[in-house]
């Protein structure tokens, strides 16, 4: 009886293989395996770069929005102690030099200003210097901030990642703008405040005067089109100074038609 049952199961299994058009020894050939792996490789090669860039975009977006919020909150907290920000803003950045004419690290007015008004309310993990003695302020999330010029603390460059890595990729700071570095302006003072701007109350400055740290919007006409083109500062056809404002205008999300691949 037991032998009959086993035989019956064997016949049924054989019938199943037969119905499926397979034999007990059916298997994929080497050619079929290689073709399948090739297809998987092609699909991966097509989709992986897009996934990586999407992840990179999210990191850049998050760090830009976080920096904008955090530094302006730090300014508001300092106003509680020191009064209106326009009265403790100064658009100068002198740097001391040694006997050989080399800049003395830590001597710049911007670093002294930062340590007094910003650093107490915005954690800075370290400070490094370029060849001109200009400081880079590093933050806990790996991003960094640097003053743009040696004679003003009005213009700032924000790096979502390591500045050295960014500049190594694009060679110059100007070429990196809108890609792995992003421009901001801090100029809250009016015409009665010491500043290097020729006329800070002129219409060109209206998006900066009496405000905190804002994406670079000098001479912006308020239209989306000029953020992309038709202006010397436009993101696509200009010097890319407006790229930060373009991302902010889109809710701190990189637009689908953004003209560059960002990195950090």
Rg: 29 Å
Sequence of secondary-structure elements: HHHEEEEHHEEHH
β content, as a range? Answer: 5-15%
General shape: globular
Question: Would you give an account of this structure?
Answer:
The protein has one domain. It has seven helices and six strands, in the order αααββββααββαα. The relative contact order is 0.11. Strands 1-2-3-4-5-6 form a six-stranded antiparallel sheet. The protein is globular. The chain has helices spanning 2-19, 30-82, 109-117, 163-170, 173-176, 224-228, 243-249, and strands spanning 126-129, 135-138, 144-149, 152-159, 182-185, 214-215. A hairpin with a 5-residue loop joins strand 1 and strand 2 (135-138).
What descriptors fit this protein?
264 residues; alpha+beta; 39% helix
Quick structural overview:
The protein has helices at 2-19, 30-82, 109-117, 163-170, 173-176, 224-228, 243-249; strands at residues 126-129, 135-138, 144-149, 152-159, 182-185, 214-215. The protein is an alpha+beta fold.
